Amino acid sequence: MTSRFTELTVDCHDPERLAAFWCEVLDFTVLDRSEDQVEIASWAPTAEAVRARQMPPTLLFVRVPEGKTVKNRLHLDVSPIDCSTEEEVERLLALGAVRVDVGQGTGRSWVVMADPEGNEFDVVRTLAP
Q: Which domains does the chain have, with CATH numbers?
């Protein structure tokens, strides 16, 4: 018996806004929404597909009353697929991300950023040909 990693849940104040941001970042679409949550993904999961093989997890944004107070213990890494890392950083800044310092120092091969609600993520090496 095994389990599958099916969703990554992100607590937030505004699920619609954060889902829209991450849809633009990752080229995902909204799978489901309710008043207090929005689920996005690159594919529409079915029970059969999930049982057959490990697939990319969906992202589920859930409204919570409290704000973010400390550095994330878990974060996403994203890799640009058709531009340089710095070009992707510029695109993400235009979408509403910001650069952040979490003590990473200088001269790193990745860029630490935060989404519109302050959740840190890294832009890592480009996968562009």
A: 7-63 (3.30.720.120), 76-123 (no CATH)
